[in-house]
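Before the break, one more example. Copy the sequence into your notebook; we will annotate it together after we see the structure.
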Amino acid sequence: MLQNTSKVNDDSLDSYNKIETNFDVRVVIDWNHNDTDIDLHIIDPNFEECSYKNVKTQIGGELSKDMTQGFGPEEFTIRNAKDGAYFVKVNYYGDRYQKIENPTFMKVTVFRNFGKPNETKEIKVVRLSKSKDNQIVAKIEV
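Here is what the structure looks like once it is written out:
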């Protein structure tokens, strides 16, 4: 995991231009081919699944808009994460790309304590091979 040691100097900004955004957990996925549909799902410690069908969970998780074209991104955030395991699941719905020599890769970026001094970031790259494939690609312990 990478520890964030850089700080943006925002001294010259007026206070109304400063946005204080922080999350206990933030997950971002993006991919390398246009015209690809990959769906992000998060299963929380209550076993509630956050997805394009359920964009807000009972414990406060939220999912961004479902990107059915382009390179993503799709994002999950939760401010006050409940202790336990969060599973990052993706559904490689499919694409309209001829990929004989260029397979589809997805990047999963997991932030813990996003926007806080103790922020960490973990990046994982996953090769996707079969359309309609559901797979758990990461587990986050809070």
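The radius of gyration is 16 Å. DSSP finds no helices and ten strands in the chain. Try to locate both features in your own notes.
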